[in-house]
What we know:
Number of helices: 5
Helix content: 25-40%
Order of helices and strands: HHHEEHEEEH
Oligomer: single chain
Mean pLDDT: 81
Strand content: 25-35%
Shape: flat
Radius of gyration: 24 Å
Structural class: alpha+beta
Amino acid sequence: xxxxxxxxxxxxxxxxxxxxxxxxxxxxxxxxxxxxxxxxxxxxxxxxxxxxxxxxxxxxxxxxxxxxxxxxxxxxxxxxxxxxxxxxxxxxxxxxxxxxxxxxxxxxxxxxxxxxxxxxxxxxxxxxxxxxxxxxxxxxxxxxxxxxxxxxxxxxxxxxxxxxxxxxxxxxxxxxxxxxxxxxxxxxxxx
Length: 191
């Protein structure tokens, strides 16, 4: 996408997504702007340079494909494989793809801001015998807990504990999440 940006975006130095968000949002810290709901900026789009529509651009895209193999018993099995495919499109289509991905990214940033504000509110308004548990299941199964501190100081009304659980299981279903939470909840209930 870097070469695409150089060819069709208005400024050479506009390489970061935050620069593009500033162009289409009136306030990049406002959830409504990022979710493209603000009346002031919801119809804003990227200002592209003039370019010839018949120019062809190339970009790389991660896509899944189904493949088959035979197991040791001769049974045919199907699996999904992740491929990095070379995609060729004209620059007009590529501009549309970039605009759509920017809108998706803006919505993602808006959700992150909303989640951060909600978590901050929950931590600042913790009730006694209540815990806020913040989990990240992407790589290591990390957990940060926030507990009401009866001896709190004005700037920090809660205590923080961090945990990390490991497993060979790659499942992220409810039962797997509870398996990671169970020892943490046991530890918290004892404190």
